[in-house]
Structures are given as structure tokens and as C-alpha cells.
Amino acid sequence: MQKLSIKEKYSYALAGFGQNIVITFTTTFMLVYLYQTVGFTTRGIATITAIITAAKIWDAINDFFMGAIVDQTRSRWGKLRPYILFSSIPIAIFTILLFSVPKTIEIYKLIYFGVIYILWGMIYTIADVPFWGLSGIITTDTKERVSLIAITRTLQSVGLALTTLLTPYLVQWLSNVGGSRLMGWSLSALILSIFGMGLFTLAFFNTKEKISFEGKHTSLSQTFKAIVKNIPLLLVLLASALSFGRNIIQVGGAVVALIVFGDEKIFTILGGALILSLIFSNLLTPFVLKFVTKKQLMIYSNILSALFYLIMFFVGYNNFILFLIFIFISGFFSGFFIVVLTAMIADSVDYYEYKTDTRNEGISFAGLTFISKLMGALATMAFGAVIVAIGYSSNLPITPKIKDGVFFSVTLLPAISCIIGTIPLIFYPLTDDKIKQISKELDEKRNTVR
Predict the structure, then answer these.
(1) 384 falls in which pLDDT band (50, 70, 90)?
(2) So what's the pLDDT on residue 1?
(3) Residue 382 near residue 409 (C-beta atoms within 8 A)
(4) CA 190 to CA 186: how far, in whole Å?
(5) How far apart are CA 435 and CA 176, in angstroms?
(6) For residues 372 and 104, which has the higher predicted lDDT (pLDDT)?
(7) Do 187 and 174 touch, CB atoms closer than 8 A?
(8) Among 9, 38, 85, 437, which is least packed, fewest CB within 10 Å?
(9) CA atoms of 303 and 308, how far apart (whole Å)
(10) Which helix (DSSP H) or strand (DSSP E) does residue 200 occupy?
């Protein structure tokens, strides 16, 4: 069994930290930059919304194509690491371009943004799918994988927090230095993308793919069929999709803060509580898994999340401190879910190799990135449906009915979602003992081949 060195472990985790700086900067501040600094008409904003929606749909589908391409790759550096190296500079360049919309008429701004944003998303996928696939191939020890994923998710949460909190101050300072708000955003994109993608390359330079797989070379169609035949993988992905309610507070938190508590800035406090709880639970996951299996932790995470969402619903929103505590607890259980989900997908790759002599990290971890986007889309759709149903509009007074409806969307709706998401996990067939046995037999087989 090939172990993971300290250098590899923390290089991979720091790569995830750098990656999350870039994605957080882009997804969190792009609309603020476009609406407030670049400036668009109402029709222009509607066009931007359509562009982003179409790009996200394509991006989600593109994950599986990228996964299939990765699984066909053979090189002297492995099948995953080359994409991490060769995508880092293009991501940095396109992030800078995304925050450098030229001063021109609106139609040209829209064309520029549309082209750059779509290309940015495609190139980011080229990096993201191999990066997560690498977590399942740089160590063959299942416990080390959990530890690796936990520390990586923790540093990603730290990157999320630091980027969210510090970017406005960085932009303000660089705006003063550069002489304009536009220049402040462009310089911020330059600094953060170079720093973040520089760290990201550590996953190439300081790691090694421990499994040099030279098994059957499958066609693209066979690679796509592999995800359908991998039942453990499908069950985990289905459970994640059905648990989309966890993400509603993230996509609608600012609106909830505005409607229920009267100030959208309160979301900074709510978001801080979520991030802090994620960091704690990410770090605790390997310790907790000494007492329960991955399957059990996933089920307990969903059930306990649903329980606290229900309590939150019945307690109500009049006591903000109590609500904040419940948000922290819900985020705590979500942190377990995120780490174990990634580890279980890595297990499903081993299982599929055990059954077929074919490894498919690419297509399997494309499922991970796809499902995270799908969960965000479903959460956005559900939250939007509630907003429409309660008749909220910015020019109407906030009534108790509207407050109750919005509060329902971040409490009872996630509770229902988590309960339903537990059902596929009941049928998940891979116990921890079975995975250990599979890993042992695969190691023996690989050593025999050598």
C-alpha cells in the first residue's frame, strides 16, 4: 500500500486553498463588479442573467465530457496532473480578463463578457475535475484519503472566508492606487488569480499518481456507460442531489437577512457562522470516522440536519442569536457530508476497478463537480419558487406572511430535502470493511502486474 507523504498532503491541500480563492473571488464578486462598476441597463442585466444561466448549464454537462477525456489520457505525468499544470495559467488569464470589461457600448460589453465567461467556465472545468480525481489516486489508503480530503476542504473553507472578507478592502485600496474602481477590480483579479493559481500548481509539482493504470483502454461511449453501471456512485450522487436543501441558505441568505431581519449585511454574520462550522467539522471528520462508518456518518448527518432544521422552524426567527446557533449547527453537519461525499466517490472508483479492471476517476469525479452545480441550481430554483409563491417584491411592504414564507424556505424545506436524501444512502452497498478488502486486493494485483 503506497502512503501519502506530508509534502504531498499539504501541497494538495494548499492547491485546493489557491483554487478556492479564485473561484470565490469570481462567483461572489462578479455580479457586484458588473452591476455597480461596469454598469448595465435593465435589459443588459437580463442578458447577463441569461448568459450566466446558459453557461452554467453547459458547464455542468461539460464536466462529464472532461471526465471522459481524463479517463482516456495517458502521459508520463499521469492522466490527471497534466491538466492541473496546463490549465492554471489560462485560468489566471481569463479571470483577469473577466474583471477587465472594456469601456465601450453595451452590446460590445455583453459580447465580451459572454465569450470570456463561457471560456473561463470551460477552462476551470479542465482543472477542477482532474484535481478532485487526484484525491483518489495519490494514495491507496482509504483513511489517508479521508484525512487528505478533510484538510483540503478545511483550507478551501479558509480560502472562502478570507476571500469573501478581504476582497472589498483589497479592491478599495487598489482603486486608490490605480486611480479608478475599474482598475481596482482588474488589479485585484491579477493579484488573486496569480497567487491562487500559483498555489494550485503545487498539486502537479509536489504529488505523484500512485496508481499507474494501464488496463483496458475504453472508448468514450464505454466511459460514459461506466457511470451508469457504478451503482455505489449513482446512489451517492442521487443522495447528494436530493439533499440540495442544505444549499438554500447559501443562495438566498442575503435575501433572508434582508426580509426576515431587516438588513442584508446580517448575512455576513450568518455566512461567518456557516464557514466557521464547516471548518470545524471538516477537521473533525477523520476523528469521527474512527467511531462510525462513512455510510453511517452520511445518514446521521442528513437526519440530524433535518432535526435541527425542524427545531429551527418551530422556534422561529424572533431570537436572532438562537437562529445563528442553529445555522452554525446545520453547517457543522454539512461539513461532515461534504468530506465523506468526496471520500465515498473515491471508494466507488476502487470498487469499479475491482469489478471491471478499469479505473474512471475522471468521469466519477466529474459527477462530484456536476452534482455540486446541480445542488446549487436546485436550491436557487426552490428558493426562487418560494419567493414567487409568497408574492414578494421590493416595492411591497414586508408582511408576516412574507417573513414566514422566506423562513420556511431555509428551515422546513431543507429538512424535507435532507430526509428524502437519506433514502438512497440506505441502499449504499459499500461498507468500510468491504472497501478495505477491495483496496488490499487491488494493491496485491497491481504489485503482481509490476
Answers:
(1) confident
(2) 56
(3) yes
(4) 6
(5) 56
(6) 104
(7) yes
(8) 437
(9) 9
(10) helix 181-200
